[in-house]
Amino acid sequence: MILPFEPYNPQWKMQFSAIEDELKSVLKTVEAQIDHIGSTSVEGLSAKPIIDILVGLENEADLDKIPVLLQGKNYVYYEKYNEDMPYRRFFVALTGAPEQLGVPAYIGQQDEISERMHDYSLRIAHIHAIPKQSEHWLRHIAFRDYLRTHPQVKNEYQVLKEQLVQREWEDGNDYNAGKDAFLKEYERKAVEWYINRTSAKKNG
């Protein structure tokens, strides 16, 4: 499959804000910080036009409340990924109700992911719920801020993405695997930079 790939669009900020408002309303019974992450959150960076949103939970025990709170909305819950990533709950926000689009609202551990779910035109956002004390929350936030403040690294990432998107991929997970070496190198640098910067702010 050829993945959608677009130049940076200022409307991505507005799309995030609209989903953020909805999530704040739906998740008001849990304490959470909602952040725009991924390539669509970095001005000037091309990306798949799907908004990545990080729901940082103050209380890890709230992790399994999120699927219940999002139930009945325009979200597909991928419980399938929980075994490999027990620290995260993952959802896809759709352009409409799952039943109207002909897709399931829930994908369990043993369920196959249908071809229909690989249609990126149905997707608005990817929602990642992760405890804030997790190293995985930290790396997402640190990498976003690192790209925003390091133009040379952002440009390197842009070139890599432009190369990868020209290839045929079975699905988005395979495309992500193509970025893995770059991400591991710069996520490590970003986390170190972020921790040092945060420490300096506290001490300053």
Verbal overview:
The chain is α/β, with parallel strands linked by helices. It has one domain: Beta Polymerase, domain 2, CATH 3.30.460.10. 42% of the residues lie in helices and 17% in strands. Strands 1-2-6-4-3-5 form a 6-stranded mixed sheet, sandwiched between helices. Helix 4 packs across helix 7.
Compact description:
The chain is of the alpha/beta class.
The secondary structure category is alpha/beta
Using the CA coordinates, give the radius of gyration.
Answer: 17 Å
CATH architecture descriptor = 2-Layer Sandwich
Contiguous low-pLDDT stretches (5 residues minimum) are none
Oligomer description = single chain
Q: Judging from the principal axes of the Cα atoms, what is the shape?
A: globular
Q: Please give the largest β-sheet.
A: 6 strands, mixed
CATH superfamily: Beta Polymerase, domain 2
| CATH fold name | Beta Polymerase, domain 2
**Head-to-tail CA distance between termini:** 50 Å
Beta-strand portion reads 15-25%
Task: Determine and state the CATH class.
Answer: Alpha Beta
Count every helix, treating DSSP H or I runs of 4 or more residues as helices.
Answer: 7
Mean pLDDT: 93
**Helix amount:** 40-55%
InterPro entries: GrpB/CoaE, NT_sf
Protein name: GrpB-like predicted nucleotidyltransferase (UPF0157 family)
Keywords: Transferase
Pfam families: GrpB
